[in-house]
Amino acid sequence: MNSEHIYLIGVVMSQQKVTPRSEDYSRWYTEVIQKAELADYAPVRGCMVIRPYGYALWENIQDTLNSMFKATGHKNAYFPLFIPESFLKKEAEHVEGFAPELAVVTIGGGKELEEPLVVRPTSETIINHMFAQWIHSYRDLPLLLNQWCNVVRWELRTRLFLRTLEFLWQEGHTAHATAEESEAEARRMLGVYQNFAENFGAVPVIPGRKSESEKFAGAVVSYSIEAMMGDKRALQSGTSHNLGQNFAKAFGTQYLDKNNVLQYVWQTSWGLSTRFIGAIIMVHGDDQGLILPPKLAPTQVVIVPIWRKDEDKARVLAAVDQIKADLGAQVRIEVDDREGFTPGFKFNEWELRGVPLRLEIGPKDLEQANVVLARRDTRQKVTVPQAGLLPHILQTLDEIQSNMFTRAKDFMDANTFDVSDYGQFKEMMQGEEAAGFVRAYWCGDRGCEAQIKEETRATSRCIPFEQDGTQGVCFHCGRPATEKVIFAKAY
RNA sequence: CGGGGCGUAGCGCAGUUUGGUUAGCGCGCAGCGUUCGGGACGCUGAGGCCGGUGGUUCAAAUCCACUCGCCCCGACCA
Asked: Which CATH number fits domain A416-488: 3.30.110.30, 3.10.580.10, 3.40.1180.10, 2.70.40.10?
């Protein structure tokens, strides 16, 4: 490989397109989403339109998770949007948890319905209703299903991708013969999420158990992966629940075991939603806009051809066609040959849209048989020969992917603190700015957590699996504590 | 649901205090020409139920009443 010229791209710009993150983080967030054309506001409050670019990102998330679920033996199915209201009421904690945020249909075809239909906020109930009919024998177990769908939760305060009235997700639902199996399944699927988040989204996460008050309504135990956003707030990026026999008992989901004894099944459910797109935006983005991880980016390489005269144009575009033919099968490419936009404009636009790698090619490059590659993550430009371009690009995309993860991991680690003094914690959590993650001994008591939330607006995010095995005293109430917990301000 | 703010072109705004003829500016959009290696420029042009309803008036974007919607801040959340 020839000597590569490396230089940083000038940051001087004639006009600021996006509000800098340091100025107003949440404004930056909404502006980036709209300007990058990921999503737009819908005419209904709290709802959003996912635009083609955002949906392509979601499709890549779906494809990746789908192949992971296939590898773990899960099959896709689809259950109805409408759930009889009475179903929700069968599991006590479940109703209590979801009642305030249900959308309910009371009229159909112009007539008042005999029984109102709930628009699914999640599908445990209707799935159990069906499981009860499908499962008869231990031979029917385990039953491992997943569905991709939309769900509706009538939230008060909404944010694009993070919390909208309707959102897209996948929900896995499984039934098992033993408590050990359902526990193992819940943990296994959280592992799948961690693998996905870290190795595909380049989003480092802390896997752990949810506290009593943060756990899913109707679960015995909830697990989650927690990620740190660019403003040091926490975002729950995926959850997995061991439902025990709670729903099985409410719906009579039973099977005959080997001894011909009727048993309730043990269940799990787990979900990852379009919220994860919010995580990608906030974990990686900078003041230029999005930075998408190569493995999930709808476009991995954008080619910007540059020309002055018509004769140059023809030659440059011919070279672009050749490059496209060489790379096309292995790299997701887009060629930006729009007329009437200067190269500089296009550079900025594709950076805003977060394309990991840009390839510039113009008359000067043709003479030398070179191209210019510009990395989105480091904003470095290098000149490389056209010969051997494919392996070079593939390697660069790998480097970007791992650099993005490392950078995010370093940020999270640098903003995670061990604290034992509650006064210090309170100090840290003061003000609007989030201080990051605080790891502290905590007793696990519901009331204790409620007080902490009241006093600091921080909540327990998860009790990490990774513990050093030592014991201590609760940093808030002083009672004995066996585990350290992550506290943070959360989305 | 309580407190604060805002509705004028696709977006951002001016005009409203003190009513007056054809409602303006920037960006964006369309056409043409010159440009093109880090956000180019000129000319021409399209685009408005001034959130809605009712009232006052010779006359309402402007004054009055009601109403609808949105945004921000406080109690819930993938």
From this structure: 3.30.110.30
Residue A433 has what pLDDT? 78
Report domain extents, chain A: 25-284, 292-412, 416-488
Give the residue whose CA sits closest to B38 at C1': A344
Please report the pLDDT score of residue A34 as a whole number.
87
Distance CA A51 to C1' B24 in A: 34
C-alpha–C-alpha distance, residues A274 and A85, integer Å: 26
Q: Of how many residues is chain A composed?
A: 491
Tokens representing residue A86 in the block? 């009475």
Mean pLDDT of chain A: 92
A89: Cβ–Cβ under 8 A, 6 or more apart, which residues?
A95
Chain A span 145-204 residues with beta carbon within 7 Å of strand B: 153, 155-158, 162-164, 167, 169
Give the tens place of pLDDT for each residue, A336-370: 999 889 999 999 999 999 999 999 999 999 999 99
Nucleotides of chain B in contact with protein CB (under 7 A) are: 1, 34-40, 69-78
In 10 A of CB A10, how many CB atoms?
Answer: 7
Report residues 91-110 of A contacting strand B, contact meaning Cβ closer than 7 Å: 97, 100-101
Q: Confirm whether any atom of chain B, the nucleic acid strand, is less than 7 Å from CB of A275.
A: yes
The answer to whether domain A25-284 has CATH 3.40.50.720 is no
- Token pair in block for residue A100: 């305030």
Average of per-residue pLDDT across A253-263: 97
CA nearest to A405, candidates A253, A142, A144, A228 = A228
Provide the CA A70 to C1' B10 distance, Å, integer: 45
Alpha-carbon distance of A336 to A285, in angstroms, equals: 22
Instruction: Check pLDDT > 50 for residue A16.
Output: no
Q: What is the assigned CATH class of domain A292-412?
A: alpha beta
Tell whether ipTM is more than 0.85: no
Say whether pLDDT at A14 is over 90: no
